[in-house]
Design a protein that fits this description.
single chain; 6 strands
Amino acid sequence: MKKSRDQVREEAHAKGLYPAPLNAGRSRNMQANKRTDTKPEVVLRSALHRLGYRYRKDLRLELDGVRVRPDIVFTARKVAVFVDGCFWHVCPQHGRQPTVNEWYWTPKLRRNMDRDRRVNAALEASGWRVVRLWEHEPVTSAVEAVVAAVRPNSIEHIAEPSA
């Protein structure tokens, strides 16, 4: 008989694989974190689309055994764009050390940073340009960074997208 999600979670908590949530509200909050289509990603994609750029979203790339899922991919130009969350990717400006269950969160966040470095190296070794943006970055500067990577040799005026 197949175990329910709650049973599997309880067993993992009992084994110490990850901490039990402090309360039901915290559990709902953490489960609501999305892997794709976060607000900063959607705003950036919309701004790029309004400027006439076409791209693939969340496209899986397989590069020398490294699986990569950039948030926005310009396949013809070989540009991979990531919109990184401040907590999950340890933003130097907004990232903070966890104060609860640090035995779990500190290594997890370190693994995220290591994975980001591996992904960047794999993409660059395969001839891709990598654009990493923080979720707090203003949409105008994020668009400028992406356009500069997609059109590195052209000098053009970028219309300011409305936020």
